[in-house]
Write a structure and sequence with these properties.
2 domains, two-stranded antiparallel sheet, 10 helices, 2 strands
């Protein structure tokens, strides 16, 4: 009997030691491998933009140029989850809101190109479009310069994923940052793919503590992609998609982070990192709640989301994300 108890105790110790080893190994892998995914993905974005520049300089048809533009947008959406969190100021030169203007009244980044390319590229606008594409390509190339930066932490990567879910809702799903292409469902799918690339770095680690949670998260991601693939842009129920997938994924990321005992930190915030989703009570810091939450600034591409009794426009959430990104950058620079 004592021998049996001893054997069981040894087995439990071995299992415990293996779990700790796997958790430590996966932690190191996650922080290292995220760059192994990100840098090639940025390289792909640069390649797509290079093709767009070629299409413009060789005077290809308006349809071919638009196709190259759309492919570049999808490539950007794939890296958005990492780029927006770790390079917020550079991203301002790459992606903005659909009606974005500078102080001088001139659009920039992807939005400048979209304005020139749709509904069709005019011959007189080709040079301006090429210049805008070259500026965009220059900004994108700087995204891959991450060697001299501190390695991203687990907490930062989970926060980046959580904020990307908010960004998917406010920008991609509504077409708020690309209103003319009509490919907002594809952009949503591309953004989810980027998020999944980071999530998969943690799935094995979370599986040690809560395999049901991992399985449910994978099922949600699969179902969300299927819904986007089968949906039609004109009739797609954005609010149902947020309720059925985005909010549940946000909760699962929170539970996964807590299962791994990743602390939230004490940095100032605009969107509470411990909130289950952006519609949760007190998810938005009280100082940033204003009447602008329901002000329409972009018509049909600025939908009013009404979830859990809270009403926010896409444009309002976009502004919160921009402010939150600036706050993260300041906090990161002081660490």
């Amino acid at each position: 009997m004592r021998a049996l108890i001893f054997v069981i105790a040894v087995l439990l110790l071995v299992i415990c030691a293996y779990s700790i080893y796997e958790s430590t190994r996966s932690k190191i892998a996650a922080e290292k491998n995220v760059l192994s995914w990100y840098k090639p993905a940025v390289g792909n974005l640069s390649m797509k933009l290079g093709k767009l520049c070629t299409a413009l300089v060789t005077h290809q048809s308006s349809q071919q140029v638009q196709l190259a533009f759309c492919e570049s947008r999808l490539a950007y959406k794939n890296v958005e989850v990492f780029a927006e969190y770790f390079s917020p100021y550079t991203v301002q030169l790459i992606n903005g809101r659909g009606d974005d203007t500078t102080a001088s009244g001139k659009r920039q980044a992807f939005q400048a190109l979209e304005h020139l390319l749709y509904p069709s590229l005019q011959t007189t606008d080709t040079q301006a479009a090429y210049i805008a594409a070259r500026k965009l390509l220059t900004a994108v190339r700087s995204l891959s310069q991450v060697e001299n930066r501190p390695a991203p932490t687990d907490g930062q990567l989970f926060e980046a994923m959580r904020l990307e879910l908010v960004r998917i809702m406010a920008l991609s799903l509504s077409g708020f940052d690309s209103p003319e292409t009509g490919q907002h469902l594809k952009e949503t799918a591309a953004a989810l793919e980027g998020l999944k690339s980071i999530w998969r770095l943690y799935a094995d680690r979370v599986n040690i503590y809560n395999p049901v949670l991992v399985q449910y998260t994978e099922e949600l991601l699969t179902a969300a992609h299927k819904s986007l693939e089968q949906g039609r842009a004109e009739t797609f129920d954005k609010q149902a998609f947020i309720t059925d997938y985005i909010n549940h994924l946000s909760v699962n990321l929170k539970l996964s982070r807590e299962a791994l005992s990743i602390p939230y930190g004490n940095e100032p915030y605009i969107l509470d990192p411990a909130a289950s989703n952006v519609f949760a009570r007190n998810a938005v810091h009280p100082l940033y709640i204003s009447s602008d939450a329901q002000t329409d600034s972009a018509g049909s591409h600025d939908p009013l989301y009404n979830i859990n009794g809270q009403q926010f426009r896409a444009s309002y959430i976009y502004t919160l994300l921009q402010q939150n990104g600036a706050l993260n950058a300041v906090a990161g620079g002081s660490r």
